[in-house]
Amino acid sequence: MTAQTATPLPDTRNRLSDDGELVTLPGVAAPARRVRVPLDDRAYDILVGDGLLPVTGRLIRETMGVRRAAVVTDETVAGHHLAVLSRALDDAGIAHGTIILPPGEGTKRFGSLETLLDGLLASGIERGQPVIALGGGVVGDLAGFAAAVLRRGTRFVQVPTTLLAQVDSSVGGKTGINTSHGKNLVGAFHQPGLVVADTGLLSTLPRRELLAGYAEVVKYGAIDDAPFFDWLERRGAEVIAGAGSARDQAVARSCAAKARIVAADETETGQRALLNLGHTFGHAFEAMAGYDGRLLHGEGVAIGMVAAFRLSVRRGLCPMADLERLTAHLAAVGLPTRPQDVTGVDWTVDGLMAPIAQDKKAREGRVRYILARGIGRSFIADDVAPAEVAALLDDILADRPEGPAVPAG
Ligand SMILES: NC(=O)c1ccc[n+]([C@@H]2O[C@H](COP(=O)([O-])OP(=O)(O)OC[C@H]3O[C@@H](n4cnc5c(N)ncnc54)[C@H](O)[C@@H]3O)[C@@H](O)[C@H]2O)c1
Ligand SMILES: O=C(O)C(=O)C[C@@H](O)[C@H](O)[C@H](O)COP(=O)(O)O
Ligand SMILES: [Zn+2]
């Protein structure tokens, strides 16, 4: 890997500045972007660019010095991209077996974990030989958790194949599975040793999945990066279409944002909770919808961010204009913004309050929420009462528009 010597492009209105260091990789036509996650002895690189999969074996070999690995993927991804990864590993002299799981959120459960761990143990993979997760967030979260507990901790590599996984789930080391009590309630922090995000792989991703990933991109703007949100309002259509360099820039910018927050608070004792904007509500919507494809994670996050901003507005914290701007942008690209946009689920306030009560951010029985003083001005609130949330959800489910704000206190 060598640093590119070409003069960097000047910063313009349409170019993001914090979008990774440009690097030239042998065998890859266009320069890639490199984002470092600085975590002491667990530090690693995220490589973002078109055409990285064919050289992923060499990247793993150079970074980790291994000759053996186990690939975990799902049936859909295997059909599109496994052969290229397999050849890349062969070319790099990395012997490997492959475990292929069914696709979809339903796979992130205890039964699949057991099957996967059995398969990995049967393969004889050692602690120092990486589990390679080739897929979206489901494969990444499940394989990462399996690696975390296999032989009390086995190395692992993320090769994310969805927009969501490239901008979010492959970075930061949150791994885990869902249970009947809610999302990601069993898991571990376990950092990958390398993330290789080949943005060319997104050409086979269905549009609905792309949009779901885009919701997490918007999240970074809404948390603490108003200029990025502005840029997405102008260039979001290009990010989704994969036109020009906008998508690679958005992926690298998102990874840089996440890397910065994770480096400051790896295990979510404080500020990392900001990455949960929209998730306390979103996870509840997902749990109630039943993880069966009616509501994708990113769609739940889009609806959840609107709910969090709406709660902020009614507390007198956030201008109505910012709620409207967030809602308008999500809707403009085709994301749902209300639970009613999801068909076939009988939403109830009680049905949503139960998974909310299980939220991992709770302290001393009180659930914490990520609220906002505006776009790019999110913060952690400890003083939200369950009755306030239930009233909000009641209004949302009844489609009652937001009225004048009542300041909290
Ligand atoms: N660990 C984290 O920090 C983190 C962050 C965000 C989300 N998540 C988790 O990620 C999961 C959602 O991930 P996701 O949205 O990637 O869903 P996913 O993994 O289910 O992938 C979406 C679908 O797209 C298919 N697919 C994947 N790549 C493809 C490609 N290149 N071409 C064609 N089809 C492809 C998959 O087979 C699947 O059917 C949720 O469980 C969520 O909780 C975790
Ligand atoms: O990495 C984080 O931290 C996040 O919160 C990122 C989220 O997008 C992601 O969905 C994560 O899995 C949610 O974490 P959880 O702790 O609420 O389960
Ligand atoms: Zn998420």
Automatic annotation (TrEMBL):
<keyword id="KW-0520">NAD</keyword>
<dbReference type="InterPro" id="IPR050071">
    <property type="entry name" value="Dehydroquinate_synthase"/>
</dbReference>
<dbReference type="GO" id="GO:0009423">
    <property type="term" value="P:chorismate biosynthetic process"/>
</dbReference>
<dbReference type="InterPro" id="IPR030960">
    <property type="entry name" value="DHQS/DOIS_N"/>
</dbReference>
<keyword id="KW-0547">Nucleotide-binding</keyword>
<feature type="binding site">
    <location>
        <begin position="161"/>
        <end position="162"/>
    </location>
    <ligand>
        <name>NAD(+)</name>
    </ligand>
</feature>
<dbReference type="GO" id="GO:0000166">
    <property type="term" value="F:nucleotide binding"/>
</dbReference>
<comment type="similarity">
    <text>Belongs to the sugar phosphate cyclases superfamily. Dehydroquinate synthase family.</text>
</comment>
<dbReference type="GO" id="GO:0003856">
    <property type="term" value="F:3-dehydroquinate synthase activity"/>
</dbReference>
<keyword id="KW-0057">Aromatic amino acid biosynthesis</keyword>
<dbReference type="GO" id="GO:0009073">
    <property type="term" value="P:aromatic amino acid family biosynthetic process"/>
</dbReference>
<dbReference type="GO" id="GO:0046872">
    <property type="term" value="F:metal ion binding"/>
</dbReference>
<feature type="binding site">
    <location>
        <position position="297"/>
    </location>
    <ligand>
        <name>Zn(2+)</name>
    </ligand>
</feature>
<feature type="binding site">
    <location>
        <position position="183"/>
    </location>
    <ligand>
        <name>NAD(+)</name>
    </ligand>
</feature>
<keyword id="KW-0862">Zinc</keyword>
<keyword id="KW-0479">Metal-binding</keyword>
<feature type="binding site">
    <location>
        <position position="279"/>
    </location>
    <ligand>
        <name>Zn(2+)</name>
    </ligand>
</feature>
<dbReference type="Pfam" id="PF01761">
    <property type="entry name" value="DHQ_synthase"/>
</dbReference>
<comment type="pathway">
    <text>Metabolic intermediate biosynthesis; chorismate biosynthesis; chorismate from D-erythrose 4-phosphate and phosphoenolpyruvate: step 2/7.</text>
</comment>
<dbReference type="InterPro" id="IPR056179">
    <property type="entry name" value="DHQS_C"/>
</dbReference>
<keyword id="KW-0170">Cobalt</keyword>
<keyword id="KW-0028">Amino-acid biosynthesis</keyword>
<feature type="domain" description="3-dehydroquinate synthase C-terminal">
    <location>
        <begin position="213"/>
        <end position="362"/>
    </location>
</feature>
<dbReference type="InterPro" id="IPR016037">
    <property type="entry name" value="DHQ_synth_AroB"/>
</dbReference>
<feature type="binding site">
    <location>
        <position position="216"/>
    </location>
    <ligand>
        <name>Zn(2+)</name>
    </ligand>
</feature>
<feature type="domain" description="3-dehydroquinate synthase N-terminal">
    <location>
        <begin position="99"/>
        <end position="210"/>
    </location>
</feature>
<keyword id="KW-0456">Lyase</keyword>
<dbReference type="InterPro" id="IPR030963">
    <property type="entry name" value="DHQ_synth_fam"/>
</dbReference>
<dbReference type="Pfam" id="PF24621">
    <property type="entry name" value="DHQS_C"/>
</dbReference>
<dbReference type="GO" id="GO:0005737">
    <property type="term" value="C:cytoplasm"/>
</dbReference>
<keyword id="KW-0963">Cytoplasm</keyword>
<dbReference type="GO" id="GO:0008652">
    <property type="term" value="P:amino acid biosynthetic process"/>
</dbReference>
<feature type="binding site">
    <location>
        <begin position="137"/>
        <end position="141"/>
    </location>
    <ligand>
        <name>NAD(+)</name>
    </ligand>
</feature>
<protein>
    <recommendedName>
        <fullName>3-dehydroquinate synthase</fullName>
        <ecNumber>4.2.3.4</ecNumber>
    </recommendedName>
</protein>
<feature type="binding site">
    <location>
        <position position="174"/>
    </location>
    <ligand>
        <name>NAD(+)</name>
    </ligand>
</feature>
<comment type="function">
    <text>Catalyzes the conversion of 3-deoxy-D-arabino-heptulosonate 7-phosphate (DAHP) to dehydroquinate (DHQ).</text>
</comment>
